[in-house]
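Continuing from the previous page...

OK, I double-checked the sequence for HSP20 family protein against my notes and this is the correct one:
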Amino acid sequence: MRFDPFREIEELTQRMDRAFGGSVNGQLARLAPPVDVHEDEQGLELTLDLPGVQPDDIQIEAENQTLTVQAKRTYNRGEGRTAHRVERAYGTFSRTFSVPAKYDLTKVEADFDHGTLTLRVPRSEAAQKRTVQVRSGGQLSAPKTVDAEQGGTQQAEQAQQG
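Thanks. Re-ran it with the corrected sequence; updated structure tokens here:
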């Protein structure tokens, strides 16, 4: 595993939060679960590790090009038990992601399986590649693929002028 200074800082912050009662300035500490983000032709896929979290304790909000995931894992020591060491993270887990406008946050799908939350955010219809047939002298020529992200409007304007 490669050295990741940001992960090391995040883990150190979490340890400090736990060491000082799990609160920062009188508020419960918010822990950031690790995430993998992948992109393909269909859209984005975000995978978060939320071990020990129940599906009912997960809240996902998508608004204004922002995707927020919150989950809560509570610590239950139980009556008559003494804790000698508590190293696992408890409390509220939270991650917020800025999502580019080319993705459609109204169609987010979420799956939770064995402590792993997978979110799929499809590309918006306007950002999808599509085939456009160009007419020349009243005849259709070979179809051309236009990518909305990479100047599709510019290509369409050139086709109208030519």
